[in-house]
Amino acid sequence: MRGVKIGSATLELVEGDITKQDTEAIANAANTSLLGGGGVDGAIHRAGGPQILEECRRIGGCPTGEARITTGGRLPARWVIHTVGPVYRDGRHGEAELLARAYRNSLSLASEHGIRTVAFPSISTGAYGYPLAEAARIALTTARDCLTAHPGIALVRFVLFGQAAYRAYDAALAQLVPDAS
Ligand code: AR6
Asked: Residue whose CA is closest, atom 33 of ligand 1?
């Protein structure tokens, strides 16, 4: 685990399972249908139960780079923020901006709902194929900037699934904030 202070807020990295997090909200790496899938999306719907899918159906989809909110069903987290990252092609199709936008819109939505603590998975780096090191840099830079823009948010935690993801984020954080501990 590693954490840094951004003003009075904390930006944190942990290795683990996002469905177990007790932050007020967790983010889901969804697809534009919002109707579920594999990876972290499948794990969230399995752990949270059918209520989340029911709410997603009513919302009716989410464009890439945007975010939508549902309750957390049976999850410890009260809210799920569903966001859709880009499918990585070659880095020349606006992927970086779309990935940053997914994090930015998720944190704006959290702020609008008065949510103070949010956990994120590493969006787009599984089925969507985004290179981990570059995705980590974008995720952390965007989160840092959003914490400054939304002083109501006290904690952004990245929950990295497996050592490779944790190490990539750890290295990116060390670049971003050289004295991180
Ligand atoms: N907790 C935290 N991270 C996890 C968990 C977990 N329980 N399970 C997997 N990961 P992916 P994407 C990590 O594929 O690339 C879905 O089918 C995983 O190791 O879940 O944005 C959606 O419906 C990886 O590092 O999301 C979409 O169709 C990261 O979560 C599509 O996949 C993201 O991997 C979205 O693809």
From this structure: 126
List the CATH number of the domain containing 78: 3.40.220.10
Residue 105 placed within a domain = yes
Q: Is 41 a catalytic residue?
A: yes
**What is the total count of domains within the chain?**
1
Query: Residues lining ligand 1, CB < 6 A?
Result: 17-19, 29-31, 37-41, 43, 85, 121-128, 159, 161, 165
Does residue 181 lie within any of the structural domains?
Answer: no
Q: 83 with 62: CB under 8 angstroms? A: yes
Ranges of residues in the chain whose predicted pLDDT is under 50: none
Instruction: Quote the domain boundaries for residue 88.
Output: 2-176
pLDDT of residue 177: 82
Atom in ligand 1 nearest the alpha carbon of residue 84 = 21
Note the pLDDT of residue 181: 56
pTM tops 0.90, yes or no:
yes
**Rounded to an integer, what distance in angstroms lies between the CA atom of residue 5 and that of residue 2?**
11
